[in-house]
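Support request, please re-run this one:
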Amino acid sequence: MPLVNGKSILRNKNWKVIIYGKPGIGKTSSVKFLKGKTLVLSLDNSDRVLAGQDVDIYQFDRVHPEEDIMAFVKSVETIAKNYDNLFIDNISSFEKDWFVEKGRSSTNHISNEIQDYSQWTNYFSRIMTTLYMIPNINIVTTAWEKQIEITTETGQTFNQYAPEIRDSVRDSLLGLADVVGRMITNPKTGERGVLLQGTDAVFAKNRLDDRTAAPIAELYNFGEVAPKKATTAAKKSTTKTTEKGASK
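Re-run finished. Output below.
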């Protein structure tokens, strides 16, 4: 029976982080703030913003996403031996490309068939679980954002920002992560920050430290920055997002 003593668990190593936000906000470029050697799985081919960065980039075949992701998964042992960080960018794009590929093989070569949706649920969970089980590595996963409707037990409904991915796989994926944060920009200062505390308007969580928000440059410094440290941009945006995003 494998046992691990809690005192041996380090919060600042082998963590799993998901950051989401609108396209172009700077999720991909946050790679430069990771320490150690990083491999980028560029699922949406947006790696041009990494020009000049000392990172290795796997340029994904978006025309054949199912075949290429399986080829990548087969290299997990090599990844574990050679990298400190795996940056998966981004799963929203991968989901769309996967369904497009499935549509090509359908009866009319365009529309998806019913079995595609159930297949996606099992397929995606298997892929992400395999990647998240790579030992001794930090993993960052990015996604676009969307608003989903939440209904409470009392019948109250409100809209909440969350990663843009199908409902059937989103909850299980978010459960695998130690940190989920929404990336935002202060329109007045241009500062970028990540909200780490969940509200009715924003899905977020942080089980690695006590921060409720962080500037993007410090997001990955788990165990190295003072608890509850946050930029003014992130704090103000939390309030504004709650006011605008939640509705009865």
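The first strand starts at residue 16 and ends at 20. Helices lie at 65-73, 76-82, 91-104, 114-132, 167-176, 232-245.
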